[in-house]
């Protein structure tokens, strides 16, 4: 059974503000369930430098929750047709999704989300029936139809299009930042 889409609606008042108008996470200082996370990236073998950065953030995030980093090879069946490639990648990703996962796809047309909103989203996921948060970074042609339909939320990391390896690094840093916000630690500002 999929987690309902309405559970992931992000209203403009998602976070509160203090007297100076700075955004605040609604869970800062409160106990938040350490919901497991999985990051799935579709792409080629990672550059060594990128992998070192991903490993560094994975290790940091492990202080807050378990996190898996999964790389799915782009174009797994070596299709010459772009639609077939997207479909093959789509099947490979959706096969890794459990029915009680909260699925977030990264997409250039997704919702704009600040760091505090991501922290709130993680806190919200921790108090629902979700067993795990799953973040999906698409391949060179984006996400397939099945994954888009299954996704509970679509977010963008930037208004600019990012290479999947850069998007992964930005996502990992933001996940770490979100946890430090949730725990009231000094990393954020």
UniProtKB/TrEMBL annotation:
Molecular-function annotations in GO: methyltransferase activity
Keyword S-adenosyl-L-methionine: yes
Keyword ATP-binding tagged: no
InterPro entries: Alpha/beta_knot_MTases, RlmH-like, tRNA_m1G_MTases_N
Alphabetized Pfam families for the sequence: SPOUT_MTase
Gene Ontology biological-process entries: methylation; rRNA processing
Keywords in alphabetical order: Methyltransferase, S-adenosyl-L-methionine, Transferase
Domain of life, source organism: Eukaryota
Similarity comment: family membership: Belongs to the RNA methyltransferase RlmH family.
Protein name: RNA methyltransferase At5g10620
Taxonomic lineage of the native organism: Eukaryota, Viridiplantae, Streptophyta, Embryophyta, Tracheophyta
């Amino acid at each position: 059974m999929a987690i309902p889409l309405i559970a992931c609606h992000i209203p403009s008042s998602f976070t509160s503000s203090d007297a100076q108008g700075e955004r605040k996470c609604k869970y800062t200082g409160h106990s938040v369930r350490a919901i497991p996370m999985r990051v799935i990236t579709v792409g080629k073998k990672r550059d060594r430098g990128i992998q070192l950065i991903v490993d560094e953030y994975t290790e940091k995030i492990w202080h807050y929750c378990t996190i898996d980093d999964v790389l799915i090879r782009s174009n797994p069946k070596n299709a010459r047709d772009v639609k077939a490639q997207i479909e093959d990648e789509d099947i490979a990703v959706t096969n890794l999704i459990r029915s009680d996962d909260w699925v977030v796809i990264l997409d250039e047309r997704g919702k704009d989300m600040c760091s505090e909103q991501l922290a709130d989203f993680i806190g919200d996921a921790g108090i629902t029936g979700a067993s795990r948060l799953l973040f999906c970074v698409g391949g060179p042609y984006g996400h397939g139809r099945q994954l888009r339909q299954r996704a509970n939320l679509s977010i963008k990391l930037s208004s600019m299009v990012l290479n999947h390896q850069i998007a992964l690094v930005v996502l990992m840093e933001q996940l770490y930042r979100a946890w430090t916000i949730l725990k009231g630690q000094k990393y954020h500002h």
